[in-house]
Amino acid sequence: MIDEMLTEVPPPVRPWPAADLAGVKFDPVLTELMHEGPVSRIELPNGEGWAWLLTRYDDVRTVTNDPRFSREAVMDHPVTRLAPHFIPTRGAVGFLDPPDHTRLRRAVAPAFTAKGVARLREKSQVLLDELVDELLQDGPPADLTSAVLSPFPVAVICELMGVPAADRHSMHTWTRLILSSSQGKQVSERARNEMSAYFRGLVHRRENSSGEDVTSLLGSAAGRGEVTPEEATGLAVLLQIGGEAVTDNSGQLFYLLMIRPDLVAQLRTRPEIRPKAIDELLRYIPHRNAVGLSRIATQDVEIRGVRIQAGDPVYVSYLAANRDPEVFPDPETIDFSRSPNPHLTFGFGPHYCPGAQLARLESELLVDTLLDRVPGLRPAVPPDQVPFKKGALIRGPEALPVTW
């Protein structure tokens, strides 16, 4: 990873336009960048300047776990980015570095442990069975996204957060507006402010709660002075938004299964392989457009013979890391027997997704329940007629027409 010989001439700055990619097609620009070298420079459609991009598995893990690359410093740097609007909340966990980042995550850790997630399994299965009951009762054809893949993760994350069922629709609407890059900054900013105000009130009302849900944990931590109300609100917003990413990931997962009946056949005849199969599908699915949040180098750092200077913005690509042939032989092939499978779909280092275990649980429940209860599940339209989201940061189908 760190080489002694330095490259004097930096690589050229490559424009990376926003593309609305359909299906599970891998971004062709990212493919070119991966082939051009492990360290490149990119210019995204919005923001200012250029940024370094790292695509090799080892380098991605190094940077995401290295305190010399700061998320907090992004607040004060104009950075090239995908989204036309940038609405960070100072003190939000996504823009904190340790030790503040560690302190804030510690407040909600009990909800995301294996035990905390297991507490949700029975309730989640009941919620899912109710949705599948309605799907079967209404009969084919159906939109799997609106019938199951969207309401299920919303219900589960609201259950984990402690959001009452009556407020689920508002949460879903706010999340979609925040994650859209086509609605404009004002619409997204208003949605974030409304969600923040909601959680600010909910956390405050639960300052003396002994509950196990996230807002109760945050409320009691704020009551003890371990986190500020602003920090608690920012973390609640981030976790709520992140919880809905399962909708898009599951949409891509089931789209892939619908167009690959050979994969479905394996999962039907050998249910014991499903957990490993889901991990492989999570590795393979291109779950986002371009790249996520950047980091700022706080010192000069040498990576693969390239000097990254203090103050330079740096992006890593988890999608590219998941296709690194040195770690994943024949990475373009979906191999349910792949072992080990140390994919980086949920990130790495201090900012590793706290909801990773919850997302896996939801994916396993969805695959088990839909494959077992709807045995003839198949696409209702040709693959190229499945509409995928446009102007979104996270990739996924707008609708998934199915029949059985």
Primary descriptors:
alpha+beta; 404 residues; three-stranded antiparallel β-sheet
Number of helices: 15
- What distance separates the N and C termini? 50 Å
The H-and-E topology, N to C, reads as EHEEHEHHEHHHHHHHHHEEEEHHEE
Shape: globular
- The tally of beta strands, per DSSP, is 11
The helix/strand class is: alpha+beta
Side-by-side strand order of the widest sheet? 1-2-3-9-6-4
**Unreliable parts:** none
Helix content: 40-55%
**Portion in beta strands:** 5-15%
Short description:
It contains 15 helices and 11 strands. The termini are far apart.
Can you describe this structure?
This protein is an alpha+beta fold. The chain has 15 helices and 11 strands. The strands form 3 sheets. Strands 1-2-3-9-6-4 form a 6-stranded mixed sheet, sandwiched between helices. The protein has a 3-stranded antiparallel sheet with strand order 5-11-10. β1 (13-15), α1 (28-36) and β2 form a beta-alpha-beta unit. α7 (168-179) packs antiparallel against α8 (185-205). The longest helix has 25 residues, at 114-138.
